[in-house]
Amino acid sequence: xTKALEKNISQKLNESEIRYRRLFETAHDxxxxxxxxxxxxxxxNPYLEKLLxxxxxxxxNKKLWEVGAFRNMKASRDAFRIIQKEGFVRYEDLPLxxxxxxxxxxxxxxxxxxxxxxxVVQCNIRDITERKRIDLIKETKRLLEEERVKVQSIADAxxxxxxxxxxxxxxxxxxxxxxGKNKKSAKSAFKAIDYEIKHLSGxxxxxxxLTSQSWExxxxxxxxxxxxxxxxxxxxxxxxxxxxxxxxxxxTRNIPNISIIGDEVYxxxxxxxxIKNSILYGHEGGHTIIEIKQSKQSKQSKQSKQSKQSKQSKQSKQSKQSxxxxxxxxxxxxxxxDLPHIFERFYRVDKFHRSGGNSIGLGLAIVKWIAEIHGGxxxxxxxxxxxxxFSVTLPIKATV
Length: 400
Fold this sequence. Notes:
Elements lengths: L2 H24 L3 E6 L5 E4 L1 H7 L3 H4 L16 H11 L1 E10 L5 E13 L2 E10 L1 H48 L9 H26 L2 H7 L3 E4 H17 L4 E5 L5 E4 L1 H17 L6 E8 L7 H5 L4 H9 L2 E8 L33 H11 L3 E7 L3 E9 L5
Parallel strand pairs: 7-9
Antiparallel strand pairs: 1-2, 1-5, 3-4, 4-5, 6-8, 9-10, 10-12, 11-12
Helix pairs in contact: 5-6, 8-9, 9-12
């Protein structure tokens, strides 16, 4: 090797070292370099000195866990052993104590690499105190907004209670105090009262569903075998009376004659809510279509093919299948800005009570809960003025 070449290589190495030191010294993250065998600190950058309040002398030639800031670092010796073995360890949210006793939140990432023929460990320490503060502010704002919406919705619910109660009181008065033409028969009054009681009961059920603990709700589910064809027919017949006033036609297509396992009462409530919405926000003379798409069976593995007689294999294959119930309408649609929020509790698209006093923003949240409690999911696609498609996907569980 010529002297000129040696000089050139030496110069390149020197320039590389200078660049590294500049990056090391000016980095806005704390950096520690450790001996990979002993865990002793061999270098520290100025940012970390300033962040934790220790001098370079207080860092150097000490093991990581011997520095005051890291003494409370959970299982730090174990963490170092993991670095030695795996070459990497990460703490996303680690509290460190500064020399003057303040706690700061940091992100701690360590990895090992070869430098100058020697294996070293580099620890990058990022101060996330400000990020945590901003996250806390955002979360506080979210909770306050959620509370505001909840209070407003409870006020709306209270308002809704007044109407049926007033109707009940009016019917009682007409039946007991009315005279002549204004007198109402007991049978007619009871019929009207019964309708309002059902309305009240529906509101109470919705509120109960979404204010109960999740474990309480799960305990209410009564699983049974449900024939989809019969189930859809029952729900559609229930909703025809609602669609009659607006001349909205309800049709079905591709309804398979298969069974799933679920709670018929809750699944009926889920589907009725979706169809009612399609009618409520539908145009006069419009349509609502209920269709079902069944997922195709996945190909069996070679082992499954060899054991076609195995009951366990059949159940495993069946449990992976699902059906998707689509409720399609050509109604007013949902604004783009509202679409991501429609399944949130107490969220209402119809800010101006277009629902006619029959909504407190719980219907779609209940649809979501019922789908998820059955191991499924719900989604929506819509264009304002063009209609909506609500899709519920449910697993076909093995029926033994």
